[in-house]
């Protein structure tokens, strides 16, 4: 697919040099860079952990928090911030 993207002169020159060294096209260099960036984002998203505060008495979730209710979970997470 053809599209137009504005890139800084420095960045496009670096992409052209890399393409020449690899004997490939600038488009292929940009595609590879985008794929790598998307893969890093996906890997980072997988490592995000959410900690829910439990009842101090050890009885499970805090009162009013239901794992079946997204709204109560969101409220509980925002209270902890």
Explain the layout of strands and helices.
Layout: H1 9-22, H2 26-46, H3 70-79
Classify the oligomer: single chain
- Give the end-to-end Cα distance, rounded to a whole number of Å: 44 Å
User: What characteristic shape results from the CA principal axes?
Assistant: rod-shaped
Strand element count: 0
The number of helical segments is 3
Helical proportion, percent range: 55-70%
Radius of gyration: 23 Å
Biggest beta sheet attributes: none
Strand content: under 5%
Spans of at least 5 consecutive residues whose pLDDT stays below 50 are: none
The overall average pLDDT, rounded, is 83
H-E string: HHH
Structural class: mainly alpha
What features would you describe in this structure?
By secondary structure, the chain is mostly helical. Helices cover 56% and strands 0% of the residues. α1 (9-22) crosses α2 (26-46). The longest helix is centred in the middle third of the chain and has 21 residues, at 26-46. It is rod-shaped, with a radius of gyration of 23 Å.
């Amino acid at each position: 697919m053809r599209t137009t993207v504005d890139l800084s002169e420095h960045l496009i020159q670096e992409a052209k040099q890399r393409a020449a060294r690899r004997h490939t096209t600038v488009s292929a260099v940009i595609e590879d860079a985008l794929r790598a960036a998307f893969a890093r984002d996906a890997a980072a998203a997988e490592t995000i952990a959410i900690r829910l505060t439990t009842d101090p008495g050890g009885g499970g979730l805090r009162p009013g928090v239901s794992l079946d209710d997204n709204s109560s979970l969101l409220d509980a997470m925002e209270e902890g911030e």
